[in-house]
Design brief:
Order of helices and strands of chain B: HHHEEHHHHHHHHHEEHHHHHHHHH
Helix content of chain A: over 70%
Strand content of chain B: under 5%
Number of domains of chain A: 1
Largest sheet of chain B: 2 strands, antiparallel
Number of helices of chain B: 21
Shape of chain B: globular
Radius of gyration of chain B: 22 Å
Number of strands of chain A: 2
Oligomer: heterodimer
Strand content of chain A: under 5%
Strand order of the largest sheet of chain A: 1-2
Strand order of the largest sheet of chain B: 1-2
Shape of chain A: globular
Radius of gyration of chain A: 21 Å
Chain lengths: 495, 495
């Protein structure tokens, strides 16, 4: 069932390409149904997996020989971690379509690229052959570029090209590591599970891990390779920002976990402290820079860097609670950042044509668009990591895991959370609840549409649901972390 | 020993091509003099196509394979001839609509003669025969390059091509004469035998460098690449197609024959910290220079043809990496790469030719908004550009992947990884300029007076077929690899 998420999305993109150019309505509806079908397939697949594979092991979906000369297989499979991210992709995809309902220019092409991107993302999360994973990883680059370069706003061509080149340079690093691992292992296979069994020499792991991990982590916003993220998010149209922050950054974190950490556990131990340090720098730096931005999208863009720092920190703890927190944080940040970008990009920017805090201040948005204000406040609270939202449980787990390994860094990360509260409160006050004596000329804005409300409810509902009932995801994640594929990570002494 | 009648029969495909070259001339001079230019072009072009198809049919129906002193016919040579004839066919189809000359008969006759040169080149067993075939290929190409009499650039390009070409040919001839003096043999096999048994004298390396210099010119590898940008830009677009595709396939084939068969014993080594004199370090230097010079120069081009020329130089560099593979992977990797590359670049130049014929120049700015004026043509260009950039699932990606993997696997202890790192990095940079072209086509707004334009059906059909092939060979490379492994098993190569 899960494999259908990929096929449905790519098929939807193909159908959209074949539609007549002017059929906007048909394009929207096709895109929405494709995204919903993908989400339904993801939900069914997740339910099936939970029922049939309680051990959390890797469940094969499709596996046949693709390019025999190099031992490449078309191998799709899933475990609890990948299913969590597939669910995230499904939800983000539906919400993204709902928040792009007002795209009038080249609608058909917009949604075709959008669905191609979604299909590539699903593919990365479900590939267990590294060649296949790499193929999907690169497929996702091109739609991102065009979504931003054609439909974007501020400095769109610059932001799009920067993102494309960062992604490609990252994936080039990954490619070198993969080819080297393939040759060194001599296994004549790119299968992740096969390669993970091979004990790579430690000297090899030391550089291969760094290469592959950093290559993926570029896309996860690892400081100091994060600079594509703020410019890319700001330049992108709403749905693309939502996907960039919501799922594309997770591609990087997922690849780092699935490929780099699984294949090269010894290399991981060598670089554990250094990467944790970079992650914490990212947390603090992202939050601090977000504090002084004027463009709200920049605030959220930098906050994404900060929140993805928690994911990387969680991965580096090499403890089950830390890793579980990292995966939870990937899911949670995907939902919350998507919602924040949706409010700013769709509800505010499309109506007021500005995201500048000083220009928004006199508008008194909380009166003009109360729904946007409320949504933003709730999403902001979720982003701060308040209890009751998904971010709380995720960051708590990460900090608990990190405390055992890097106590000093954990304190810094905690300080990052406090700064995170500060920049969010600043945006609340300035953008939505400014006290102004001199009333600016009241402007008329169109009311919040049904599609936007629906999208907001989907995302808000998810973060609250997971916040109140984290077991829904933890039941998927925890058994998987005990599965054989993850065993090499725990062997180094951590429980 | 075979009688000469046997050879006459064995070489029927070549004869068909030569006879049709003459027939085309007669047809144009004797019968069609009074017709309009377009009518003549269609009739003569159709006759030329017919000749190619007849030769292909003759090869496809199978024949006895023969090996002689001068020429050898093996499954591999016949397969490559099919590929070359197919490439010529496309070039001929694109030339239908060309308006650069009134000398239609001469044009197609020279094109067919050059093709005959390619076919003989593929079959040559003897260094003298190789040289003669090279000249038979080069002389028509010099003339064809100058065929646009209304353009000074065309004449300049031809002069450059001719001067560089004759110097390169002189180098090759000098190298051959040295080899003959050293070994007393002109047969490739005999030379290798002598080099194996005799002590290697320093003059052998002089012969190696001289011979390779000539072929480096043919494949446009830096530092022998200076002719390429001017020729690609100045020559009529269909001729640029031919030089970039057919001529390249044959040149790489002969380069492989000479290096693997002739100079096999003089391998040397280019592994990290283990450089030894031989053709390996020489090719490594050529590859690095080509990849770096080609990609860096392409970054700043504003003419699509020049951009493609520099990209061709870079791609020559990637293809050279295949020579570092082990005996099992080297030739499949090389031929897969070169064949798929030539299909792609042929398609890309064909698009340029069609756009030029519509009265536009090949400046990037002239392509603005092409995506909406000629959607199918632009979609094909999209495929070609991304394939050249190495984005999956297109054939350019798999070609590069296979070549890189072969190069890493060919030397123990990852000795050649340094070269692959250079290649992957260069390839990542190259996405920038391919995206520049696509950005003009899809993201830029068309000029206000731009009208939709309809490309000629025959050209559009062949371009679409090429695009389909590029996609199909990327998704299912196993087909071509299986074919290659069949023909290589019984090949002329003595590895």
């Amino acid at each position: 069932m899960l494999a259908w998420t990929i096929y449905i999305s790519l098929l939807g993109a193909a159908v959209l390409v074949l539609l007549p150019p002017e059929s906007r309505r048909a394009a929207r509806i096709t895109a929405l149904f494709t995204a919903l079908a993908g989400l339904a397939a993801a939900l069914c697949g997740a339910a099936q997996y939970e029922r049939h594979v309680p051990s959390g092991a890797v469940a094969d979906l499709v596996n046949f020989s693709w390019i025999a000369d190099l031992g490449i297989h078309f191998h799709l499979a899933a475990d609890g971690v990948s299913i969590t991210l597939v669910l995230l992709t499904g939800i983000a995809a539906v919400a993204g379509v709902l928040f792009s309902w007002n795209v009038e220019r080249r609608t058909r092409e917009f949604f075709a690229l959008y669905l191609a991107l979604i299909g590539g993302v699903y593919g990365v999360f479900l590939s267990f052959d590294l060649f296949l994973l790499f193929v999907f990883y690169e497929i996702a680059i091109i739609p991102k570029y065009f979504l931003i370069a054609v439909w974007g706003s501020t400095r769109r061509e610059y932001g799009a090209m920067k993102l494309a080149l960062y992604s490609l340079v990252g994936s080039a690093m990954v490619l070198i590591g993969l080819i080297a691992a393939y040759v060194v292992s001599g296994a004549h296979s790119f299968d992740l599970i096969e390669l993970a069994k091979y004990p790579f020499p430690v000297a090899f792991q030391n550089w291969a891990f760094l290469l592959v991990f950093v290559g993926f982590a570029v896309l996860a916003g690892l400081w100091p390779f994060h600079t594509w993220a703020p410019t890319g998010h700001v330049a992108a149209p709403t749905a693309a920002s939502m996907l960039l922050a919501g799922v594309v950054m997770k591609l990087g974190a997922y690849g780092a976990l699935r490929v780099a950490m699984t294949l090269f556990p010894d290399g991981l131990r060598t670089w554990q402290n250094e990467i944790a340090l970079l992650a914490v720098i990212g947390i603090v730096y992202g939050a601090t820079v977000a504090l002084v931005q004027r463009d709200i999208k920049f605030v959220i863009g930098y906050s994404s860097v900060s929140h993805m720092g928690f994911v990387l920190l969680g991965l580096m703890t090499l403890s089950q609670i830390g890793l579980s927190g990292a995966v939870m944080q990937m899911f949670s940040h995907g939902i919350i950042a998507g919602l924040l970008f949706a409010v700013v990009g769709r509800m505010v920017y499309d109506r007021t044509h500005t995201r500048d805090l000083t220009e928004l201040q006199p508008m008194n948005l909380s009166a003009l668009a109360p729904f946007a204000a409320v949504t933003f406040v709730v999403a902001g609270a979720a982003s701060m990591g308040l209890p009751g939202f998904s971010g709380f449980i995720a960051e708590l787990q990460v900090l608990a895991g990190a405390w055992a390994v890097f106590p000093r860094l954990t304190i810094l990360a905690g300080a990052g959370i406090l700064v995170g509260i500060a920049f969010m409160v600043r945006v609340w006050i300035k953008a939505f609840f400014a006290e102004n004596d001199a009333k600016a000329a009241p402007i008329q804005i169109e009311p919040i549409s049904m599609a936007e409300r629906a999208g907001a409810f989907v995302l808000l509902g998810t973060t609250v649901l997971i916040g109140l009932w984290p077991g829904l995801l933890l039941n998927l994640i925890t058994p998987t972390l005990h599965s054989p594929l993850f065993q090499p990570l725990w062997k180094g002494g951590q429980p | 020993m075979n009688s000469s009648l046997d050879w006459m029969i064995a070489l029927v495909p070549e004869e068909i091509v030569i006879v049709s070259a003459l027939a085309v001339l007669v047809l144009d001079f004797a019968i069609l003099r009074r017709r309009t230019l377009a009518g003549r072009a269609a009739a003569v072009g159709a006759a030329a196509c017919l000749g190619c198809v007849a030769a292909m049919v003759w090869i496809a129906r199978g024949q006895d394979y023969q090996a002689g002193e001068m020429l050898a016919l093996t499954p591999l040579t016949q397969f490559l001839k099919m590929v070359l004839l197919a490439l010529t066919l496309v070039v001929a189809v694109i030339s239908f609509g060309a308006r650069f000359s009134r000398h239609i008969g001469e044009y197609f006759a020279l094109l067919l003669l050059a093709t005959a040169g390619l076919m003989l080149l593929i079959s040559s067993e003897n260094l003298l025969m190789i040289f003669i075939a090279l000249e038979l290929l080069s002389l028509p190409l010099y003339v064809l390059t100058a065929f646009d009499k209304s353009s000074a650039a065309s004449a300049e390009a031809a002069l450059k091509y001719f001067l560089f070409g004759s110097v390169a040919a002189a180098f090759t001839l000098f190298g051959i004469s040295l080899l003959y003096g050293l070994t007393g043999d002109l047969q490739l096999g005999g030379i290798a035998e002598k080099l194996n048994t005799q002590p290697v004298e320093p003059i052998c390396y002089v012969a190696l460098v001289m011979t390779l210099a000539g072929f480096a010119f043919k494949v446009a590898a830096a530092p022998m690449h200076f002719w390429a940008p001017d020729v690609y830009e100045g020559a009529p677009a269909p001729i640029a197609c031919f030089i970039a595709s057919g001529s390249k396939v044959a040149s790489f084939f002969v380069l492989a024959r000479i290096i693997v068969d002739g100079f096999g014993p003089l391998r040397g080594s280019a592994a990290w910290e283990d450089f030894r004199a031989g053709w390996m370090p020489l090719l490594a230097v050529l590859a690095v220079l080509s990849m770096v010079a080609g990609n860096l120069a392409a970054l700043v081009q504003t003419s699509v043809k020049r951009l493609l020329a520099y990209s061709a130089i870079a791609h020559g560099g990637y293809a050279l990496l295949a020579f570092f593979g082990n005996s099992r992977q080297m030739l499949p990797a090389l031929f897969f790469y070169v064949i798929t590359y030539s299909l792609t670049v042929l398609g890309a130049f064909a698009v340029v030719a069609v756009v030029e014929n519509s009265g536009r120049r090949d400046r990037l700015a002239d392509w603005a908004g092409l995506g909406r004026r000629a959607p199918l043509l632009s979609a094909c260009m999209f495929v070609f550009m991304l394939s050249l950039a190495g984005i999956p699932p297109l054939s350019g990606f798999f070609g590069k992947f296979y070549v890189f993997t072969a190069a890493v696997a060919g030397t123990p202890h990852l000795g050649m990884l340094w070269l692959v790192i250079v290649a992957v990095a260069a390839s990542a940079i190259s996405l920038y300029y391919y995206l520049q072209v696509l950005k003009e086509i899809y993201a830029a707004e068309p000029a206000a007076d731009a009208k939709p334009f309809r490309p000629p059906h025959a050209a559009l059909l062949s371009i679409a077929l090429l695009a389909g092939l590029v996609i199909a060979l990327g998704c299912a490379p196993g087909w071509l690899l299986a074919k290659l492994s069949v023909v290589l098993n019984t090949s002329v190569f003595r590895l």
